[in-house]
Specification:
Layout lengths: L1 H34 L2 E7 L7 H15 L5 E7 L2 H13 L6 E5 L1 H6 L8 H7 L8 H6 L1 E2 L2 E2 L1 E14 H7 L15 H11 L1 E2 L15 E7 L5 H5 L23 H15 L7 H10 L9 E7 L1 H6 L7 E4 L13 E7 L7 H12 L1 H11 L2 E2 L5 H11 L5 H6 L16 H17 L5 H21 L2
Parallel strand pairs: 1-2, 1-3, 8-9
Antiparallel strand pairs: 3-11, 4-5, 6-9, 6-10, 6-11, 6-12, 7-8
Helix pairs in contact: 17-18
């Protein structure tokens, strides 16, 4: 009897161990299955995407992806813009590069020049169809024979104008016809002078005009870096301050001198553009140059829709960028992509996520989050329908047609010592706005020497 009980207890113990081991194995397999999900971290901070409403919407995108994919999970890593560069470099040096960086503009790519993966092989391996993307957006992110990412969207530029100010002055609105060659910067200057008014009702042609007591100005283009402002004046290298080999500074070219002098004269001679003190005045009336109703015409990009058109108290519309003094139209553009760092692990999975984020099913939502036009031609009608509900009454043909006139070479494109060059150019524009120096030739000759010194030192060590 004792022997039977002994063998029965052995049998029960064995069964328990088998069941227990089986359970542990099943649980281990389940844990292993979870661990098999590859994580793709999306670093957000070089461009837009860091506002609270954008963060919430990106978290919703993250949830939508992770709930429908078994092999990959994504995480949007949101970093404040002023910390993004240092945080990104720290991740690289720590061997923890994110798998994707975006939305990343041309400036963001330039700041980390040489650190991005070429996605051309992924495109070839997948036979990925690129024909739906605006060709201009592809060209912007091509570096030599490399393609650095898939475009999310583009931000063409235009003239935002205050209809109420035009109506009050009895002046016709700017044309919306891109073929009308009478719409040039000289014409803009003429009507901007008429649209400018002090609080006593005088415009700049009056001896009683009081520039320190303003009702509104005719024109402003201050929400752009200096290279972006100067690109429209038709220099040989458009928005780039060097020759194509990056060895010779060309900052004091005749077109840029003309353009900067046009700005200086517009502020200090013709007085239809606000100076630095005037900018403080209109910021007191609104959060941006246009919103407070103190600027008749504001040159900016589609990202300004979300920034400034939501709660305007006056009638407004958009018009094409004018022709320049050479009879050319150069409408600067901004654009965003998702890019893969060269140091990233799991590049294949990053490519799969990149395709998903820029696919037609998600592209409109991503464009709405980031304030751009989807980079896919096929989505233009769908996106315009959304915009018409959000921002009714605008002539959206102006927005779309402007894409073909982009600045190339681009005003944010890489040059050696990119950040220091940007600082020099920014200081040059500040001299004009402050009135510290009003002669564009003097300013740009000085800038050219400083940039040439940077280039010479750079090439001595490269």
């Amino acid at each position: 009897m004792k022997k039977k009980l002994f063998w029965l207890s052995v049998l029960i113990t064995s069964l328990f161990l088998v069941v227990s081991c089986g359970k542990e194995k099943k649980e281990a397999n389940q844990v292993s299955s979870v661990k098999e999900k590859t994580k793709v971290v999306i670093f957000v901070g070089f461009g837009t995407g860091t506002n609270p409403d954008q963060i919430a919407k990106q978290e919703a995108v993250q949830e939508a992806y992770n709930s429908t994919h078994d092999n990959i999970e994504i995480e949007f890593l949101i970093v404040p813009h002023d910390e993004a560069n240092d945080r990104y470099l720290a991740m690289l040096s720590g061997g923890n590069a994110p798998q994707l960086v975006g939305p990343n503009g041309i400036a963001g790519l330039a700041q980390q020049h040489g650190s991005w993966s070429d996605i051309s092989q992924f495109i070839e391996d997948d036979n990925f169809d690129m024909s739906d993307f605006y060709p201009e957006s592809i060209n912007l992110f091509s570096d030599s024979d490399k393609l650095l990412g898939l475009p999310i969207g583009v931000f063409p530029s235009m003239i935002f104008y205050n209809k109420d100010i035009f109506d009050s002055a009895g002046i016709d609105y700017p044309t919306h016809d891109y073929s009308d060659r009478s719409w040039n910067y000289e014409k803009l200057r003429e009507i901007a002078i008429e649209l400018t008014m002090d609080k006593n009702g005088n415009n700049p042609t009056s001896p009683q005009f009081d520039q320190k007591n303003m009702q509104h100005w005719g024109y402003d283009d201050s929400w752009i870096a200096a290279r972006g402002y100067l690109a429209k004046w038709g220099a040989e290298f458009v928005g780039r301050p060097t020759t194509p080999d990056y060895k010779t500074a060309t900052t004091n070219n005749e077109e840029w001198v003309y353009g900067l002098q046009w700005l200086s004269d517009g502020i200090w001679k013709d007085r239809f553009i606000p100076d630095a003190a005037g900018q403080s005045t209109y910021y007191g009336a609104g959060a941006d140059p246009f919103g407070g109703g103190m600027v008749a015409m504001f040159e900016s990009h589609t990202w300004f829709f979300a920034e400034g058109l939501g709660s305007l108290s006056f009638e407004h519309d958009i018009a094409p960028i004018p022709f320049n003094q050479k009879g050319e139209r150069i409408a600067r553009i901004h654009a965003n992509i998702f890019a893969i760092p060269e140091a990233a692990k799991n590049k294949k999975e990053a490519w799969e996520v990149m395709k998903w984020l820029t696919a037609p099913e998600q592209a409109v939502e991503m464009a709405l989050i980031y304030g751009c036009i989807p980079a896919r031609v096929s989505l233009s009608d769908d996106f315009q329908t959304v915009l018409e509900k959000e921002y009714p009454g605008l002539d959206y043909s102006v927005m779309y047609e402007g894409i073909q006139y982009l600045d190339d070479p681009h005003h944010e494109s890489w040059v050696p010592e990119w950040s220091r060059v940007e600082e020099i150019m920014g200081n040059s524009a500040s001299l004009v706005y402050s009135g510290e120096e009003k002669d564009a030739r003097i300013i740009l000759d000085t800038a050219n020497k400083e940039i040439q010194d940077l280039l010479d030192n750079y090439w001595e060590s490269h």
